[in-house]
From TrEMBL:
<protein>
    <submittedName>
        <fullName>Uncharacterized protein</fullName>
    </submittedName>
</protein>
<dbReference type="GO" id="GO:0003955">
    <property type="term" value="F:NAD(P)H dehydrogenase (quinone) activity"/>
</dbReference>
<comment type="similarity">
    <text>Belongs to the WrbA family.</text>
</comment>
<dbReference type="GO" id="GO:0016020">
    <property type="term" value="C:membrane"/>
</dbReference>
<dbReference type="InterPro" id="IPR029039">
    <property type="entry name" value="Flavoprotein-like_sf"/>
</dbReference>
């Protein structure tokens, strides 16, 4: 399995200081000690960005069958 950290590709939203936000340059994440906290919209956007980033890099490296 190929793992590609997102680095700083998520832009300035990675440094949002107005709300608690999980995640880092290694990937998306959520702070939820007991499971009662749900991911914020910003955390979901970062997770989507990571998935899209991994898909694009894997596709460009020939990791998917291209018919």
């Amino acid at each position: 399995m190929l793992f590609v950290p997102i680095g700083y590709t998520f832009g300035s939203d990675m440094f949002e200081m107005n709300q608690v936000m999980g995640g880092s340059t290694y990937g998306a994440g959520t702070f939820a000690a007991d499971g009662s906290r749900k991911p914020t919209e910003l955390e979901l956007q970062q997770a989507f960005h990571q998935g899209l980033n991994n898909y694009c890099r894997t596709k460009s490296s020939g990791g998917f069958d291209q018919e």
